[in-house]
Prior knowledge:
The chain is built from five helices and no strands. By secondary structure, it is mainly alpha-helical. The protein is globular. The mean pLDDT is 94.
Amino acid sequence: xxxxxxxxxxxxxxxxxxxxxxxxxxxxxxxxxxxxxxxxxxxxxxxxxxxxxxxxxxxxxxxxxxxxxxxxxxxxxxxxxxxxxxxxxxxxxxxxxxxxxxxxxxxxxxxxxxxxxxxxxxxxxxxxxxxxxxxxxxxxx
Length: 141
């Protein structure tokens, strides 16, 4: 039986939302906007911002909920119970990133002609987001 801590998922959603804001606004917002060919002088309409935030919260919930199931399933792999919580979090985050996010991010360079700069911004976000959520899920088990 897989146990899922919904409080951990809620905290992961909030943490990931805040992290995404920091990553794509003060840290890399201008570079990301330039690489996306966005007009950064145009402020989005309030309705667009609200819609984007709602979609982001829904996406963050689905991400944390599915990742919690994935992390819980790792506990059935032999010898994983002997690993530290930090090692479990890192293993889950890195393997999930390597198998599911990194290939898609590479595809944006190969097929969508996105820049390597955009690749590193987005894939860095995906990896760090997975690490943050993994640590929350593992330590709040």
